[in-house]
Amino acid sequence: MRLTTAVLAILTFAMSSVALGQADRVTGFSFLRMDPSARSAALAGSFMAIFDGDVNALYYNPALLSEETSGSISFSYLNHLSDINAAFLTYSRHVDGVASFGAGLRFLSWGSFDRANEFGERDGTFSAGDIALTVGAAREYNSRIRYGANLHVVYSSIDTYHASALAADFGATYVLAESNFAASVSLNNVGVTVSSFGETRDELPFDLRIGIAKKLEHLPILLTATAFDLHNIGNAPEGASGIGSVFQYLAFGGEVRFSPAFHVRLGYNHRKHESLKQKSRLDFAGVGIGAGIVVRRIKFDYAYSSWSSLGGLNQLTIGTTL
């Protein structure tokens, strides 16, 4: 028995589930919930109805792919706690008369660890990591309604142990361009587990979400709200009550657009706050902040996500149009 491997597996799954502030279910594929860009992280994951040409919306709702995302390429780097690092690469292309297509690659490395047996005797090192390849497409139903789907091939490893799965997303978006309003619904990570780490079958982090986004008419502000884990309503985490139980399923974000080249962002996820907070007062766990600038044709986005006294996550995204 490799004691270190077993301990790492438990910590990996638990950290992934808590860190992303969504369902508390433990799964070998929880990294699929990670925010793929600095902009989405700064908005605390409240991103699934933002219809403005951001290619990273692919992972939240494939219906958000459009002619505006065509040619967009984005690379994100996430500096997680300890030696954990993640990277995301996303690209989109529109084909007239066919559909808008997208592709993405997500990679998470847990670093290197000492291997030991049940007696604490060390025997080299091992690593752990996750990877997911995504392809998606979206089409216009009419001038206001779009629909789309993604397919994910998912692979996770811990030392010599492996897990894999095939998953899909299905989404639809309703857009009122004249009112700068959009509403979306999606089913995320619907699929089958091909292989698991152990005898217990690893589950995909299925999620039913709805979201809205509205740009204010007379102010340069975009407001967004997302409801997630809706298939589990009524099963809020233990200790949640009243209005708090409602907010367990909600994330909010706001973006102030000082100019086309400079944006400031703020987001809040209440479930993440409740899961990570360590202070009785003024604990910023679950809060995301960030900013974006455009230099010529290159977009730079940065986000900081608070993990209370544990520290915070730093994420950087660079994007352009080819």
Give structural notes:
With 322 residues, the chain is mainly beta. The chain is built from four helices and 14 strands. The chain has helices spanning 3-19, 38-42, 243-247, 270-276; strands at 72-79, 85-95, 99-116, 122-140, 145-158, 161-176, 181-195, 207-215, 221-227, 250-259, 262-269, 287-295, 298-306, 312-321. Strands 1-2-3-4-5-6-7-8-9-10-11-12-13-14 form a 14-stranded antiparallel β-barrel. The radius of gyration is 20 Å and the shape is globular. The termini are far apart. Residues 1-26 have low confidence and may be disordered.
Percent helix range: 10-25%
Radius of gyration: 20 Å
Q: How far apart are the termini?
A: 51 Å
DSSP, total strands: 14
Strand content: over 45%
Shape summary = globular
Average predicted local confidence, pLDDT: 86
Would you list the SSEs in sequence order as H and E?
HHEEEEEEEEEHEEHEEE
Helices and strands: which structural class?
Answer: mainly beta
- Number of helical elements: 4
In what order do the strands lie side by side in the largest sheet? 1-2-3-4-5-6-7-8-9-10-11-12-13-14
Q: Residue ranges: pLDDT <50 for 5 or more in a row?
A: 1-26
Largest sheet: 14 strands, antiparallel, barrel
What tags apply to this protein structure?
322 residues; mainly beta; 14-stranded antiparallel beta barrel; 4 helices; 11% helix; globular; disordered N terminus
